[in-house]
What does this fold into?
Amino acid sequence: MSLYEEIVRLGRDGEACALCTIVKTAGSTPGKSTMKMLVRRDGTFLGTVGGGCLEAEVLEAALASMQDELPRTLAFALNERDYPDSGLLCGGRLEIFVEPIVEPRLVLFGGGHVSAAIARLARSVGFHVTIADDRETFASAERHPEANQTRCAPFDELARQVAPAAGQYLIACTRGHDQDGEVLRALHASGCRPRYLGMIGSRAKKVQLFEKLALDGVDAAFLAQVRTPMGLAIGARTHEEIAVSVVAELIAVRRGAESPASKPAPGHNAR
It folds into this structure.
């Protein structure tokens, strides 16, 4: 399989990767210009930029670039002084450009009006959007033409399907507290590691539902990462306004730009 075929496959499966390319060399170097290495999120890779300790540093930078979605240019002087334990004596220099290839994945559990509004806006700012519901009419492409895909199955099954992929943006926005709890319970049981986990509702709902989930064995560390009420505190009331507040929060998380002043206000997206 070529690097580019693997990039296409990973994109189709919603997996991030980083392409590392030698862009400049001087003197004697183990890797030559345009050599490439593709790093997957789990740390496995395809191709090479010269091997050895240099490759280990590039791998670390690639994993970091997938996390913050920022490219990097790495410069190396291949000598025994800079790498005393490597045995490198070639004395050359090279630069490697690390390019993250990340399409943020948003999964909305629930296909109602709020999810539809969030999906429309999230898609417009670059998120790959999936609508998941246990009712066919609420998880159809006809109802959600703006979504990249729709899925229909029981909520616990939908959550288990989603859980294995790390770094996703997940929102529980179903038709009721029981179904939201079902989603959270299944995500927890599956060892889900999302980058963002939100749930629509009021602070009162949070207290009641979290007490119930705790009795069911959902641990406090998992519940602490659930953003509810979700979205930035802009006084949102309508479906569209809630979508603006939530997508703004998704962008803030993605770009590392959150601030204490942006926390939700009491009653925000209450249900």
In short: The chain is about 35% helix and 20% strand. Residues 3-101 form one domain. The mean pLDDT is 89. The chain has two domains: 3-101, 105-262.
